[in-house]
Amino acid sequence: EAGVAQSPRYKIIEKRQSVAFWCNPISGHATLYWYQQILGQGPKLLIQFQNNGVVDDSQLPKDRFSAERLKGVDSTLKIQPAKLEDSAVYLCASSTNGNTEAFFGQGTRLTVV
Amino acid sequence: GEDVEQSLFLSVREGDSSVINCTYTDSSSTYLYWYKQEPGAGLQLLTYIFSNMDMKQDQRLTVLLNKKDKHLSLRIADTQTGDSAIYFCAESAGKLIFGQGTTLQVKP
Q1: Which of A78, A81, B34, B76 could make a disulfide contact with B18, Cβ separation 3.0–4.6 Å?
Q2: C-alpha torsion angle, residues B86, A91, A33, B91 (rounded to 10)
Q3: Could you report the per-residue pLDDT of A21-59, keeping only the tens digit for each?
């Protein structure tokens, strides 16, 4: 069974630039999560989708971050404009529903300079 | 709101048992999870326990759940150097919330 795929693996951008991350969840998984993991901290939930609807985006900085999950499969997370404090690993995860185990991708390491 | 707390660091000798502790706040959590993260890698699910269980054993791993105190622990028997990693506990009540992670250092 294929796992959660994310791209790119690494990205370096200057502050105020834009960046987008892509996630392809495990086939058939209705729930998709985006997490931000700053070095030395636990993953922080940014947004949770159930199919193509948003379940929770209470910790998403909506002035600069946006996410979509068109057709309830793939998802993109965008940051525009980026700030230095956005430097982190962005993890995508999926599960069959919001209460079952979540499988994680390898993450995208973003460095904002 | 949801909150998950863990101690930050644990150091043990190879062959000893390791016990990593976690407290959570959401009493409606249906599952509680332990994830492992090695340097530069993603999160790997180690084990989980359903909220109506007190204990779950899986080879060298034992999970204990005290639902009254909202306390979860992970015991690793015969700890090996390959167990060195960051361990995250997570609660699930419709969404998955992580603690800040416990760094386990295993000395040869």
Answers
A1: B76
A2: 10
A3: 999 999 999 999 999 999 989 999 999 999 989 999 999
